[in-house]
Amino acid sequence: QVQLVESGGGLVQAGDSLRLSCAASGRTFSSYAMGWFRQAPGKEREFVAAVSSTGGSTYYKDSVKGRFTISRDGAKNTVYLQMNSLNAEDTAVYYCAATWRGASRVVTTYDYWGQGTQVTVSS
């Protein structure tokens, strides 16, 4: 069982940066690939970024490539999403997720989810 708690969301202006954090419980954090997803009002949850269990491979949604960076810190059992050059289209609730199947862009691959953190970008 893995419990995930996100933090770091907030209200920012277009062009600003935010760093989201996701703290994971349990001693098997290194066994899980981690992902970030987001869901805007009236839309389906969508993939944003993922990192392999070792941290050696990362994957991104095309529209965030070059702006967002996913990383993980095994010593802290935490995964991060650094978000730069934010724009209004990035406004959503951001969710952290964990899977033992390997990093994936598919929502249903993930076994554990956090409660989400709101990111609002004003233009």
Net shape = globular
Oligomer: single chain
> Helices and strands: which structural class?
mainly beta
Average the pLDDT over all residues and give the rounded result.
96
Number of helices: 0
How many strands appear in the DSSP assignment? Answer: 11
**Beta-strand residue fraction:** over 45%
**Which ranges are low-confidence, i.e. pLDDT below 50, for 5 or more consecutive residues?**
none
Q: Tell me the distance between the termini.
A: 40 Å
Radius of gyration, taken over Cα atoms and rounded to an integer in Å: 13 Å
Q: What percent of residues adopt helix (DSSP H or I)?
A: under 10%
The description of the largest β-sheet is:
7 strands, mixed
Helix and strand sequence? EEEEEEEEEEE
Description:
By secondary structure, the chain is mainly β. Helix content is 0%, strand content 48%. It is built from no helices and 11 strands. The chain has strands spanning 4-7, 10-13, 18-24, 33-39, 46-51, 58-60, 68-73, 78-83, 92-99, 112-113, 117-122. Strands 2, 4, 5, 6, 9, 10 and 11 form a 7-stranded mixed beta sheet that branches. Strands 1-3-8-7 form a 4-stranded antiparallel beta sheet, with no helix packed on it.
Q: What characteristics describe this protein?
A:
11 strands, mainly beta, four-stranded antiparallel sheet, seven-stranded mixed sheet, 123 residues, single chain
Compact overview of the structure:
The chain is an all-beta fold and 123 residues long.
